Amino acid sequence: MNDLKNELRQIEREINYCKPMLQSYCNEYENIETEICDVRQLQRKARFVLDNVRLEEEDLCERFKNIHLNYEACIEKSDYKDPNETIRIKINELTTQKKNLLEELVQLKRKADDNTKKLIRVNAMIAEQEVVNFNICLFKTYLQLL
Fold first, then answer.
1. Helices H, strands E: what count in the chain?
2. Least packed by Cβ within 10 Å: which of 3, 91, 112, 130?
3. C-alpha dihedral sign at 56, 58, 59, 65
C-alpha cells in the first residue's frame, strides 16, 4: 500500500512538473492559432482590396480606351497632323542615319588600321631593300677599287 502511495506521489510530482510546460505549450498554441486567424483575416482583406483594385483598373482601362478612341476620331475628322508624331518620325530618321554613319565610321577605322599595317609592312620592305641596295652599291664600289 505504501508503495502505491509513493508511486502515486511520484506520478503527481511528475504531473505537477509537466503542468507548467503543458500550460506554456497551450498558450503558445493559442498564440499561433490567433496569428493564423489574423493572417487569414489579412489575406481576406488583401483579396478584397486586390479585387477592388482590379475592378478599378478595368474601369480605368475602359475609360482610357474610350478617351483614346475619341481622340483618334477627332484627329481623323480634323485632319490634324501631330507635331509630336512629325518630330518622332524625324528623330527616328536621324537615329537611323546616325547608326549608319557610326557603322560606316567603324568600317573606315578598320580600313585605316589595315592600311596602317600595310604601310608599316611596305616601309619595312623599303627599308630592307634600301639596305640591300646600299650593300650592292658598297660591293660594286669595292669591286671597282680592286
1. 2, 0
2. 3
3. positive
**E strand intervals along 23-136:** none
Q: Report d(CA 128, CA 134) in Å as an integer.
A: 10
Secondary structure of residue 80 in the 3-state scheme: coil
d(Cα 122, Cα 109) in Å, to the nearest integer?
20
The DSSP secondary-structure symbol of 27 reads: H
pLDDT tens track for 72-111: 887 777 766 667 888 888 999 999 999 999 999 999 999 9
Rounded Cα distance between 105 and 107, Å, is: 5
Contacts 24+ apart (CB under 8 A), 108-111: none
pLDDT of 145 > 90? The answer is no
User: Residue 136 — pLDDT band, cuts 50, 70, 90?
Assistant: confident
Query: Max Cα separation, the chain?
Result: 147
Q: Specify the pTM.
A: 0.38
